[in-house]
Amino acid sequence: MQRDDAFLRAWRDTADASPGAEEDDSTRPPQRYRTLWISDLHLGTPGCQAKALLDFLKHTECQTLFLVGDIIDGWQLRRHWYWPQAHNDVIQKLLRKARKGTRVIFIPGNHDEFARKYLHHNFGGIDVAEEWIHETADGRKLWIMHGDLFDGVIQCAKWLAYVGDSLYEFTLKLNRHLNSLRARLGLPYWSLSKYLKLKVKRAVSYVGDFEGAVAREARKRGMQGVVCGHIHHAELRDIDGILYANDGDWVESLTALAEHADGRLEILHWAEHMPVTTRAGRAASRHEPAHA
């Protein structure tokens, strides 16, 4: 059996297992929201900021949690198996949230496209769906999808996407070495990959084209807005009368999209919510060498 299927079976078996002990973490009260969206966790890669993600999951509560694709990086796992305990802890925490009453909806992306053959199934209380229409508290209809269907590279030249993915992993690896040096010099963390995305003209043009295409499709579908991931660039803005929301990622920016009780939407930059000790631990984890 392929690793993808084996992992989904393990997900199901973990959900059926008896719940473990709850974390004793009462010093920080949870932040409560009506809805949360996260995507592009890339569990199964050294670049995933699993400890920061766990901090987010422990200290937020919501009625509905959307996992908007690229939760598990099947592309990387096929090339090189990497699954530390912290990544397993994230899955456990998601399953625990589902058990405790949070509605968890998983919309697979291109990196976890293996899960698309399980659409309309439920794994441990987590629903798998191709897309979703969410109505906010103030009555707006939002189209929820990952976003890879609007990426011409993914659709027209998948082999090129795999090459790009390898180059991106190389950039993240270089970024870890760079920040190890910066830490020794007493300098703060700095994201090379995020800098390149914002400064390279072709990358900026790609982001703009992607956002415009997604907003146009949402309009065609009669939606008031759209929520997606895929491009690792958190954004919340109006595009010709359509609300465009991208929840970012948990590799570079540590961001989520949140809906408040009154329907107001907000990008959460979780690094700003974590205590100094957690942020220090996160920085230290970046400097550790990756293990198979």
Q: How would you describe this protein?
A:
40% of the residues lie in helices and 20% in strands. The protein has 292 residues and is of the alpha/beta class. Residues 20-24, 153-161 and 277-292 have low confidence and may be disordered. It has nine helices and twelve strands.
Neighbour order of strands in the largest sheet = 4-5-3-2-1-11-12
What is Rg? Answer: 18 Å
Mean pLDDT, all residues = 80
Distance between the termini: 20 Å
Listing every helix as H and every strand as E from the N terminus to the C terminus, the arrangement reads HEHEHHEEEEEHHHHEEEEEH
Structural class by sheet pairing and helices? alpha/beta
Main sheet summary: 7 strands, mixed
Total count of helical runs of at least 4 residues: 9
In total, how many beta strands? 12
Stretches with pLDDT under 50, minimum 5 residues: 20-24, 153-161, 277-292
Q: In percent, how helical is the residue content? A: 25-40%
Strand content: 15-25%
Name the overall outline: globular
